[in-house]
């Protein structure tokens, strides 16, 4: 059975018997060499769970030539492997190659592993992307009213799913989507690269994501989510190429990521206006650490603007921002309802920023005109400490809502070095209140200085979130090849 692909057994033109004799001789003569060529390596990786069954996409007709469409191969492989959900789970290996594919769906107790030289190439043909319903907490697609294209890797109602690799690549080939979006030629909302909905125990790690049509990683209505070691690259003028957007998720960890994109590096969300209020599912217990971000037109970490289900208990630390519009940005509006509270950020280094801090209650951007003008967002207990910034145009734009001030803002131990031509007014504060300590340049009167003895004034929780207690296992895949 396995003789055919063996280059050592190429004996075309000879009689079968002779072929076997020659083969035997060859195996004796060159046995060592042939055996060296036919080998298997053990690939090891770390994951929340290891799997009992394995397959390669090539066993389901996959061809990694960059031309053949592999949607059916991926979907057939995963449909087949889904039978092992209750029997120890399964892993699907993607070998070196360029694997053109449309959207496909993942299953539970499942790992997708991309070899470092494997590239999933997203199809640019809209018919390779099924239309799916809008998110209930948004009421409509983000780009257009109505439905949206399903993401390249899509999963819903799953438990225990890992998307990882040895820095394998997912290339969204977004250029054509961006052109069509800018030209108003799309009837539906653009797809994301990875979207996992209504799922528990999710790991997305050690991958490079290139040129997404829109957002890159979108866990939504999910819990116990780990995003680790992801490199995200997209042109800084590409539309809405947000990096990682935890949306109505509980217990999420984003660690060791490097993101350069045309929109926010991390955007924390929880639904839009009346739809998000009705759905009522917050994002909470989120930790973000060791993030490097370049986002010239947006934020390193954005909270909102869709925050109608609430955002609470966000802890960010050890963040490096380069050439970004703002550091942390809270975006909301009248009609959003919901809340952003108990936000803790410490240890941020920023180089070349337009604004270090930006909060606005005037972001607008409504789903439709049916929002409730009495639905006011609550913004409270926002803590920023231990930061250094250089080449900054303006320290802070903090704009609350008249009659609905943003309160409990604490900023301590922050040194902001200004650009050559800084704004005259460095702190512009309206409808906000809080305190400051050891902040340079001197903040606005709404954040009175408590003196240097209050240097560590702003809280940062000491306890650990349960997502930090999840233990990684060392898993393996035996790759057999010639
Ligand atoms: C990612 O790769 C690094 C080595 O490059 C490894 O230390 C780490 O365990 C991997 N993480 C995951 C979650 O696979
Ligand atoms: C994936 O699942 C979605 C929603 O369940 C469905 O609409 C879509 O057709 C599925 N995609 C494929 C390739 O089967
Ligand atoms: C997925 O879970 C959601 C929320 O529990 C539920 O409303 C929906 O019907 C489920 N979908 C499927 C396909 O099971
Ligand atoms: C993964 O690949 C990207 C793109 O080539 C590269 O920038 C990044 O440094 C790589 N990460 C690791 C851990 O090797
Ligand atoms: C968008 O809708 C218009 C009008 O129904 C139709 O002519 C056009 O082909 C559609 N475009 C796409 C990309 O589906
Ligand atoms: C002030 O912030 C710097 C980092 O910018 C940190 O190294 C230092 O420990 C902080 N000081 C205190 C008292 O927390
Ligand atoms: C400072 O920022 C400006 C843009 O505001 C940029 O052109 C310049 O190169 C930056 N300087 C340094 C030293 O980074
Ligand atoms: C300060 O902020 C308020 C509210 O956004 C705005 O109306 C005003 O123009 C700003 N002032 C300056 C000098 O930028």
From TrEMBL:
Keyword Transit peptide: no
Pfam (any one): Glyco_hydro_28
Protein keywords: Glycosidase, Hydrolase
Taxonomic superkingdom: Eukaryota
InterPro entries: GH28_Enzymes (IPR051801), Glyco_hydro_28 (IPR000743), Pectin_lyas_fold (IPR012334), Pectin_lyase_fold/virulence (IPR011050)
Entry's Gene Ontology molecular function annotations: hydrolase activity, acting on glycosyl bonds
Protein name (Swiss-Prot/TrEMBL): Polygalacturonase
UniProt feature coiled coil, ranges: none
Family indicated by similarity: Belongs to the glycosyl hydrolase 28 family.
């Amino acid at each position: 059975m396995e003789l055919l692909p063996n280059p050592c057994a190429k004996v075309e033109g000879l009689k079968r018997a002779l072929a076997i004799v020659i083969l035997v001789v060859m195996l004796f003569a060159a046995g060592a060499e042939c055996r060296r060529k036919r080998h298997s390596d053990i690939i090891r990786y770390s994951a929340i769970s290891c799997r009992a069954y394995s397959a390669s996409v090539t066993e389901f007709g996959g061809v990694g030539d960059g031309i053949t469409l592999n949607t059916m191969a991926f979907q057939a492989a995963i449909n087949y492997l889904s039978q092992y959900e209750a029997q120890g789970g399964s892993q699907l290996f993607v070998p070196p190659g360029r694997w053109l594919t449309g959207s496909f769906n993942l299953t539970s107790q499942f790992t997708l592993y991309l070899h470092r030289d494997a590239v999933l190439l997203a199809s640019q043909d809209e018919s390779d992307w099924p239309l799916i319903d809008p998110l209930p907490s948004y009421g409509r697609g983000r780009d257009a009213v109505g439905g949206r294209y399903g993401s390249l890797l899509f999963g819903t109602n799953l438990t225990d799913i890992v998307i990882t690799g040895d820095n394998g690549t997912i290339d969204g080939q977004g250029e054509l989507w961006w052109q069509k979006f800018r030209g108003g030629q799309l009837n539906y909302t653009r797809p994301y690269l990875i979207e996992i909905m209504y799922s528990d125990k999710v790991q997305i790690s050690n991958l490079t994501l290139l040129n997404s049509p829109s957002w890159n990683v979108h866990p939504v209505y999910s819990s116990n989510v780990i995003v680790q070691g992801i490199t995200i690259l997209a042109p800084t003028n590409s539309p809405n190429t947000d990096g990682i957007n935890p949306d109505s998720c509980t217990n999420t960890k984003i660690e060791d990521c490097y993101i350069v994109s045309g929109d926010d590096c991390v955007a924390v969300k929880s639904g839009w206006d009346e739809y998000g209020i009705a759905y009522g599912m917050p994002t909470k217990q989120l930790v973000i650490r060791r993030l490097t971000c370049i986002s010239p037109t947006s934020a390193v970490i954005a909270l909102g603007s869709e925050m109608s289900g609430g955002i609470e208990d966000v802890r960010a630390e050890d963040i490096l921002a380069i050439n970004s519009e703002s550091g942390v940005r809270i975006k909301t509006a009248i009609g959003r309802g919901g809340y952003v509270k108990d936000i803790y950020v410490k240890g941020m280094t920023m180089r070349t920023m337009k604004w270090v801090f930006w909060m606005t209650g005037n972001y607008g951007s409504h789903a439709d005109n049916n929002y409730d003008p009495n639905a006011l967002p609550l913004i409270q207990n926002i803590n920023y400490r231990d930061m250094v910034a250089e080449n900054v145009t303006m320290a802070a734009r903090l704009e609350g809502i008249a009659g609905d001030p943003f309160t409990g803002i604490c900023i301590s131990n922050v040194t902001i070095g200004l650009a050559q031509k800084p704004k005259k007014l460095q702190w512009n504060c309206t409808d906000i209140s809080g305190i400051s300590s050891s902040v340079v340049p001197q903040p606005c009167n709404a954040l009175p200085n408590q003196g240097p003895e209050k240097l560590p004034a702003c809280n940062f929780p000491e306890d650990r979130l349960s997502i930090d207690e999840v233990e990684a296992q060392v898993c393996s895949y035996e790759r057999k090849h010639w």
